[in-house]
Amino acid sequence: MKTKGVVQAPSLIDGVGAYAAATFGRREKIGELDGVRISLRSAQQIAKTRKRIHIVELNSLVALDASRAVSSLKYVNHSCNPNTYFRIAYRKVSPFHTAESAT
User: Fold this and answer.
1) Which of 23, 62, 74, 94 has the smallest CB count inside 10 Å?
2) What is the pLDDT of residues 36-52, one digit of tens each?
3) What CATH number is associated with residue 86?
4) Between residues 1 and 20, which one has the greater pLDDT?
5) Partners of 93 in beta bridges
6) Euclidean distance between CA atoms 26 and 97, whole angstroms
7) What's the rounded Cα separation, in Å, for the pair 67 and 43?
8) Domain count along the chain
9) Which structural domain, as residue segments, surrounds residue 96?
10) Is residue 34, in this structure, part of any structural domain at all?
11) Is residue 96 part of a domain?
């Protein structure tokens, strides 16, 4: 599973956002975020030099850089009121929906 029912579209917050193109149930898995595993130190350096980052800290040593990922999921949670959370399990990063439903 990669991405289910998520589209990339213009956003007033940061130029591009991920939006639901389907209805998601509470705690329903939306997909899996792809990227390159990098050291947390490298991630921190990248964050200092880029205007926009697509990085998920996996633990105290490793991060996932999704900046080159083609999936719209790299834009999830760019909102001031996010309605998803990421779960890291089995070396995969997956966003899940938190509300009762979203359209």
Assistant:
1) 23
2) 999 999 999 999 999 88
3) 2.170.270.10
4) 20
5) 33, 88
6) 6
7) 11
8) 1
9) 6-102
10) yes
11) yes
Task: Quote the CA–CA distance of 75 and 70 in Å, as a whole number.
Answer: 11
CA gap 101, 103 in Å, rounded: 7
Sign of the torsion formed by the C-alpha atoms of 66, 70, 86 and 102: positive
Structural domain includes residue 1: no
Q: Is residue 15 part of a domain?
A: yes
Q: Give me the residues paired with residue 84 across strands.
A: 97
Contact between residue 36 and residue 97 where contact means Cβ atoms under 8 Å apart: no
Q: What is the DSSP annotation of the chain?
A: --BSSEEEEEETTTEEEEEESS-EETT-B-B-B--EEEEHHHHHHHHHH-SS--EEE-SSSEEEE-TT--SGGGGTT-SSS--EEEEEETTEEEEEE-SSEE-
Give the pairing type, strands 6-11 and 24-25.
unpaired
Asked if 54 contacts 43 with a C-beta cutoff of 8 angstroms, the reply is: no
Q: Which of 87, 100, 103 is nearest to 26 (CA)?
A: 100
- Indicate yes or no: pTM above 0.85: no
